[in-house]
Design a protein that fits this description.
five-stranded mixed sheet; four-stranded mixed sheet; 9 strands; globular
Length: about 160
């Protein structure tokens, strides 16, 4: 099975808001998914090097110390062309609130299906009733657990 390995950052500010990217997915048409910033690990790249690159490119955040690995997600389903699914490893990044603006242009972000960035309070995620989806779908549950209980002893396994 050919799974795409990606890294993502659970970026939390001092008010425990999470920074999410708005992905406008072309298939099925009109699907919008809010997901943590991050992306695929390139050949020869370590997961943390990929995370640093993705955060710099997408949101303009430079990582200092190595962040904690908090969540692990494996999804077997058509996710990206040429792959049978995806593995997402999530790392906790605590930071002061900032206005996200990475090194990629709006056109480059759009080519990666990113059409916006937003800080979400966990209550907003939990109570959201619109058509957009979150990744993972039940983001509010692991997010609340992470905020209230702190970094787990090992990565928590997530579903779709």
């Amino acid at each position: 099975m050919n799974l795409r390995h990606s890294v993502r950052a659970v970026v939390l500010d001092e008010d425990d808001r999470i920074l999410l990217c708005r992905f406008a997915i072309p298939e099925p048409a009109g699907t919008v998914v809010w997901a943590a910033p991050g992306g695929g690990i390139e050949p020869g790249e370590t997961p943390l090097a990929a995370l640093r690159r993705e955060l710099r490119e997408e949101v303009g955040l430079a990582l200092g110390a190595d962040p904690s690995h908090v969540w692990h997600q494996e999804v077997v389903a058509a996710h990206a062309a040429g792959y049978d699914g995806v593995i997402n490893d999530y790392y906790l990044v605590r930071t002061a609130t900032f206005t996200p603006r990475g090194t990629l242009s709006d056109e480059q972000l759009a080519a990666e299906n990113i059409s916006g960035l937003k800080w979400w309070h966990p209550r907003e995620v939990a109570s959201y009733a619109g058509a957009d989806l979150f990744s993972p779908r039940d983001l509010a549950t692991p997010l609340t657990a992470l905020i209230t209980s702190g970094v787990p002893a090992g990565p928590v396994r997530l579903g779709l």
